[in-house]
Design goal:
single chain, about 100 residues, alpha+beta, four-stranded antiparallel beta sheet, two-stranded antiparallel ribbon, 1 helix, about 15% helix
């Protein structure tokens, strides 16, 4: 009897875990598509550019890549640690840092 309840429950939970999640949508308090937020550029210690978005409580970062070759953009124009752009804009939630 117990096995007849456990097996179907495990199957249902297993199938629920297969649901695809859209990672291009912010699911926070002011949820919206990430394309509606403002991105900036942060230069990492290797001198490569990274897209950065700060949505108050959450943050997003992705290495900037050349659209043709797919290689990281490491222009060397700015020094490592430099940040450009209003990457904290686009959200009404203030960031204390």
């Amino acid at each position: 009897m117990r096995a007849t309840l456990i097996v179907p429950a495990a199957l249902v939970l297993g199938l629920a875990a297969c649901q695809k999640t859209d990672h291009s949508v912010d699911r926070g308090i002011d949820s919206k598509h990430l394309s509606q937020l403002q991105a900036g550029i942060w230069v990492d210690p290797d001198g490569c550019d990274n897209w950065v978005i700060d949505d108050g409580a959450e943050g997003y970062m992705m290495r900037r890549r050349d659209p043709v070759s797919g290689l990281p953009v490491c222009s060397g124009i700015a020094s490592p640690g430099y940040t450009a752009g209003d990457f904290k804009g686009g959200s009404p939630i203030p960031d204390p840092i």
